[in-house]
Amino acid sequence: MIMPSQIRAARALLGLSQWQLADLAAVGAATVKRIEAASEIRGSADTFWKIQRALEAAGVEFIPAD
């Protein structure tokens, strides 16, 4: 699962606002804002998957740390 810092970085690389990412992921803008402000994973796994899939569909590739 991706971390909040990865979401912030991926969104910045794509030049998306929190509102635009929320729209692409079909989640609320307040949800994206809350997740990005957290220092650790907090929230529904389904929400994180929606955000990750939206970022990947926009061109971001997440690679394992190994």
Helix run count: 4
- What percentage of amino acids are in beta strands? under 5%
- Can you tell me the residue ranges where pLDDT is under 50 for at least 5 consecutive residues? none
Q: How do the SSEs run, as a string of H and E? A: HHHH
Tell me, what's the shape? globular
Estimated radius of gyration: 11 Å
Residue share in helices?
A: 55-70%
Number of strands: 0
Biggest sheet: strands, sense, closure? none
Structural class: mainly alpha
End-to-end separation: 14 Å
Task: Report the average pLDDT across residues.
Answer: 94
Entry keywords:
single chain; mainly alpha; 62% helix; 0% strand; globular
In short:
With 66 residues, the protein is mainly α.
Would you give an account of this structure?
The chain is mostly helical and 66 residues long. 62% of the residues lie in helices and 0% in strands. α2 crosses α3 (29-37). The longest helix has 13 residues, at 45-57. It is globular and about 30 Å long. The mean pLDDT is 94.
Write the SSE topology.
Blueprint: H1 4-14, H2 18-25, H3 29-37, H4 45-57
